[in-house]
Amino acid sequence: MLSRAAETLYWMARYIERSEDITRLLAVNFDALLDTTPEEARAGWLPLLTITGDDVIYKKAYAEIAPRSIIEFLLWHPDNPNAVTACINRARENARTVREQISSEMWEHINRLYFLVRDVNRNAVLDNPGEFFSQVRNGSQAFQGITAATLTHGDSYEFMQLGFHLERADKTARILDAKYLHINSLGEDPAAAYPQLIALLRSCSAFEPFRRASKGELNLEKVVDYLLLDRAFPRAVLFCLNRSLHALDTIGSDNSPMLKSEHPRRTLGRLSADLEYLDIHELLGANMDPYLDKLLYSLNAIGDDVARAYFNTRVILPDSRPQYQQQQQQQ
User: Fold this and answer.
1) DSSP H or E segment with residue 203
2) To the nearest whole number, what is the mean pLDDT of the chain?
3) Quick check: 24 and 205 in contact, CB under 8 A?
4) How confident is the model over 221-254, as pLDDT tens digits?
5) Please, what's the largest Cα pairwise distance for the chain?
6) What is the pLDDT of residue 259?
7) Cα–Cα distance between 1 and 144 in angstroms, integer?
8) Does 273 score more than 90 pLDDT?
9) Distance from C-alpha of 160 to C-alpha of 197, rounded to nearest angstrom
10) I need a labelling partner for 222 at 20 to 30 A (CA). Which of 180, 234, 298, 320 fits?
């Protein structure tokens, strides 16, 4: 298929996934910090800006860390390229340019999602955002289900799956990176650690799957192992990498100008193999932060390799920032 169409589908998927991930983080934080002190609320909301890599932009727009300000910033602030509204706008614009590649049901649904976020009463949402969070999450998840049910599972579908799962792997790793050190610092205090571990799992839609898969005690080691290395949970990093490998194998590399040794399949396969044989005990403690930084760098490099291998156009120009550069390839 044409590289322009492939790139558009890939980024449409990433934007839809990103809008869901950010909205889920907002919803989990809002529920978890509803009855906390102002100091606890500030400490709890700050990691969301770290996860998205937009803390510098936020500090230019707002004088202080406040829940209402962060919700507004992450949902629709015009200076935030990763705002939920911005992601859905770009996803819809990309969908418009490839109408012939997607199903009518997909187009109709993304249009409904677009009008939902465009026409919402923003002051009412800021006063009580729970329902809006649910609508956006449900809309993003429904789009993925409609895609699976109505789009032929050929190259167009696989480029979208590649986008969905690389974005998902990145977000899971970023959530771990933002939350691990704080939870680890709580040590052996279950009363303090349990709520944080539950919030971490809920941030990845993993609480119920984890409890079904893990029969034992809820602890940081098991949670990290599950979110990084589980082969069956759809948001675990290893699952996402393996699904991305499947997408690349299905797409093939016949039209790629890259040398075989430089193809993203090679980089992605190496990273997946490293995770397959990873001993989680070697990472716990001080080694976790540098490992997650390296993992995020590798995921960004894979995204760059995908762009070089398959795309030679720019659908929407980027706002490149070092801490989130690959994620902004199509702003």
Assistant:
1) helix 190-203
2) 87
3) yes
4) 999 999 999 999 999 999 999 999 999 999 875 4
5) 58
6) 45
7) 21
8) yes
9) 31
10) 298
Burial class (CB in 10 A: 0-12, 13-18, 19+), 145: exposed
Integer Cα distance of 15 and 140 in angstroms? 10
| Residue 39, phi-psi category: left (phi > 0), alpha (psi -120 to 50), beta (remainder) | alpha
With 0-12 / 13-18 / 19 or more C-beta atoms within 10 angstroms meaning exposed / middle / buried, residue 322 is exposed
Q: 226 by DSSP, 3-state: which?
A: helix
- Round to whole Å and give the CA distance between 178 and 1: 38
The CA distances from residue 7 to 16, 49, 92, 144, 167, in Å, are 14, 27, 14, 17, 14
Indicate if the pLDDT at residue 42 is higher than 80.
no
Q: Which two tokens stand for residue 8?
A: 């558009």
Cα-only R_g, the chain: 19
Output the CA angle 17-15-306, nearest 5 degrees.
Answer: 95
8-state DSSP, 311: -
Q: Write down the residue that tokens 């992450």 correspond to.
A: 74
Which residue do the tokens 């702003």 mark? 331
Cα 291 from Cα 289, distance rounded (Å): 5
Domains of the chain, by residue range, sit at 3-328
Q: How far is CA 296 from CA 13, 42, 51, 52, 59, in A?
A: 19, 26, 11, 12, 24
Q: Over the stretch 79-118, which tens digit does the pLDDT of each residue have?
A: 999 999 999 999 999 999 999 999 999 999 999 999 999 9
Q: How far apart are CA 249 and CA 242, in angstroms?
A: 11
- At 28, list the tokens: 């989990």
Report the candidate in 45, 87, 36 with the shortest Cα–Cα distance to residue 68.
45
Whole-model pTM: value is 0.89
Could you tell me the two tokens for 313?
């156009």
Q: Are 117 and 88 in contact (CB under 8 A)?
A: yes
CB 319 within 8 A of CB 81: yes
Write out the two tokens for 29. Answer: 């934080």
Exposure string (b/e) for 113-141, b if CB count within 10 Å is 16 or more?
A: bbeebeebeeeebeeebeebbebbbebbe
